[in-house]
Amino acid sequence: MVSELDIALREAKLAAQQLSESWEEINLLYSIGEILGRTVNFADASRTILNEISETVEAKRAAVFVHEPSTGLLRPVAVVGADVAKMNPIAIDDESSVAARVFRTEKPLLVADGELESPLESLVRKGAMLSVPIMWTSPTGSVALGVVTLSGRRASERFTAGDQKLVAAIASQIGTAIQIDHLVKASVATERLAHEMQLAHELQMRLLPSPSVVAPDAICSARVEPALSVGGDFYHLFKLGQGRTGVLIGDVSSHGYQAALIMALTMSAMAIHAQNSDDPAQTVTALLASLADELKQTEMFLSLCYVVIDPEHGELRYANTGHPHAFVVSAEGVAERLTATDPPLGLGTGTPQLSRRAWHRGTDMLVLFTDGVSDARDDLGKVLGEARVLEVVKARRADPPQRVIDGVFALVEGHMGRVTPEDDQAVVVLRS
Description:
Blueprint: H1 2-38, H2 42-57, E1 61-68, E2 73-80, E3 90-91, H3 98-105, E4 109-111, E5 129-138, E6 141-151, H4 161-207, E7 219-225, E8 233-241, E9 244-252, H5 257-273, H6 280-298, E10 302-310, E11 315-321, E12 326-329, E13 335-337, E14 355-358, E15 365-369, H7 371-374, H8 386-395, H9 401-416, E16 425-431
Antiparallel strand pairs: 1-2, 1-6, 2-3, 4-5, 5-6, 7-16, 8-9, 9-10, 10-11, 11-14, 12-13, 12-15, 15-16
Helix pairs in contact: 1-2, 1-4, 2-4, 5-6, 8-9
């Protein structure tokens, strides 16, 4: 009877001890869940979690390393028993590093004192070391994000399988925190980029002149819709004196930041060169000299059509470097193309040619647009086409320029539906 009672008491004591240990582990996991839930900064959360783990398994030294894909390094983000600022990152291919080996194999590792020692881990290691990978499990599989290391237990105690299991569970929570941290940073970066792009868009729109700058010599309307927040389609207007009006439309061979840079440089240079000559060919030649280096460095080119309308002499003069969509529409609805006689700026080396035609004040209408308008596609990939754009222009040829542009963009938007435009879109309409 006494023997059976002793056995029962020992079993009860063991069960109580196991329950106590399990409760401690459960409580630790719960505490870590709370830490991650209320802490925004991942580094702060890592330090708190590492302190909790170290106290539970009685390790005097510990570290959390996070993998940096761009450099292939494990960077220490939290340390117990040392100064994290004095820790150096560890290359994932370092054969002498416990943390690097665990990261590569994606398996926990317990090494004895004196085994596999690396100078890079000396500050967080004293004696045996337990190292566990930080994993993130997604629908497509698991990926290693970092490593947790623990060391410095009392000499009489060893890390157990229970310690390894507990640290692995906590490492899984840390992996979730790392992934959340990455998502938060990506979200912040995206928001910042969106804000900067919006500011760039507003700045670019301010560079485009108001159509009223050519009044009363001409009645003009213009509209630009970038495919991105900033783009490479643009126009410029110049009041040249004696009733003459200069009109420029341009299309840089891309969109986005680089195209916007070329656009801004062109606008700036044209503001100077257009006032020095009423000869479009001379003006475009001077413009090319100003842009040549930048076009070469960026490997971009620029199609444009620059028109000078001289109503007093009933003449329109122009230089066209690779811009296909430039027309004069007569009172009878005939659309005459201002043919491109030279390649886009940045592709050729010759001097742009001067072309002339008659201009009838009050009846002729200048219509310029970029290929983002005529090449607009619907959800099936069908191109709108230049002919349909000109149909709208001809139908509204007696209307004010703004009404003509409204009709063109109504056509484009109706054709595209909800499809996002692939290219910038610009239209200029002018009547003297």
